[in-house]
Amino acid sequence: MSRLAELSPIVLRGFEFRRIALPLVSPFRTSFGTETDRDILLVRALTDGPDGWGECVAGNDPLYSSEYVDAAQHVSVHHLVSRIPIGAPIHAVDVARVLEPVKDHRMAKGAVEAAVLDAQLRANDVSFAAALGAVRDRVPSGVSVGIMDTIDDLVRVVGGYLDDGYVRIKLKIEPGWDIEPVGVIRRTFGDSIPLQVDANTAYTRDDGPHLARLDQFDLLLIEQPLPEDDVTGHAIIAKQVATAICLDESIVSSRAAVDAIERGACRIINIKAGRVGGYLEAVAVHDVCRERGVPVWCGGMLETGIGRAMNLALAALPNFTITGDVSASERFWRRDIVTDPVRLANGHVTVPAGSGSGVIIDHDFLDSVTTSRVVVPQG
Fold it and tell me: Could you give the CA distance from residue 123 to residue 217 in angstroms, rounded to a whole number?
């Protein structure tokens, strides 16, 4: 991180907020809803040199978190970027401090910071991976499998992803869709397949004995069984199950990570840059976990190639020792908005090496899926 402070600053001319509509390859169902398409907010940091791009991971509706895309654009346009100096030198490392007076809205803040960071790195010809401290040029790729209509559908989809070469499977679960489907997948594909489950806050403190029935399947982890604000409840559950508890929604900062670890609420943490307010805070979460011997992995939020490339750089840091949700672009999109989408090869994906995020925007396709565009300040 010290290297970032040594880079030459950039001068911003403004920001562009662009909404795009992309249909998913197939519906993606979790315990809090089903998505068939994405309304995505992209942030472009405008400079006299290379522009930078960030992607807001807020969903269409406030279901995964309180943030949603309409609100993310509103708070960005009306409350965030007005705090960032235009026409004066700025470093990306200063963005979080400047935006701190605005409470929460971490996904919106993370997208703005990512755009500034991308622009500064491109201007200095430094890659995202090098700036964050990556130690690998490729990372193993896992895939997240949503809740299906039938177990036969689940077996077919999981089998397809294993045939594609994904090296780890994550199954979404909820009450009524947990013990049986997980057991069928384990029996069908064997004990050697790394397997984990994600509850997305669907259970209660009373479900510890039920969740303990998952221990028989030798899972890597059980992710976020309880509501995000119930850290104590997770500590209670962690004493009732042998499988490692992993926290996702509960971890909104490096401070939250330290608190959860010290209270015995988790043995593993899922890091999502948008959820913690940006890639620089994501590195801070990585660092406090590493200091405490808690492994981490990189979660996904149905990103386009912009966010996916940045996630790859993050996932290449040393304490990301558990395979993350850094799947190929084609897992979600028939066509991505970058010219060189993320591809799977021998179970791994390559970390982009170019300056900034390393991606090149497919402007013609981007324009064709754009639904609105706002530039601030208006010129």
Answer: 49
Least confident of 18-32, 194-208, 267-281, 350-364: 18-32
Q: What are the Cα distances from residue 318, in Å, to 127, 193, 243, 311?
A: 17, 23, 23, 14
pLDDT computed for residue 379 by the predictor: 56
| H-state helical runs in the chain | 2-5, 69-75, 95-99, 106-124, 128-132, 151-164, 179-189, 208-211, 231-238, 254-262, 273-276, 279-291, 305-315, 363-369
Is 239 labeled as catalytic in the residue annotation?
Answer: no
Catalytic-role residue among 103, 109, 170, 172: 172
**What is the distance between the alpha carbons of residues 253 and 285, in angstroms, rounded to a whole number?**
7
**Residue 103 annotated as catalytic:** no
pTM over 0.85: yes
Mean pLDDT, residues 230-259 taken together: 98
Query: Is 130-350 in CATH node 3.40.640.10?
Result: no
CA 122 to CA 109: how far, in whole Å? 20
Quote the Cα angle for 286-289-294, to 5°. 125
Q: Are 234 and 245 in contact (CB under 8 A)?
A: yes
Q: Check pLDDT > 60 for residue 2.
A: no
* pLDDT > 90 fraction of the chain, expressed in percent and rounded: 92
Superfamily in which the 2-124+362-376 domain is placed by CATH? Enolase-like, N-terminal domain (3.30.390.10)
- Distance, in Å, from the CA atom of 295 to the CA atom of 181, rounded to the nearest integer, reads 27
3-state secondary structure of 280: helix
Contact of 40 with 183, CB cutoff 8 Å: no
Q: What is the pLDDT of residue 331?
A: 86
d(CA 42, CA 10): 20
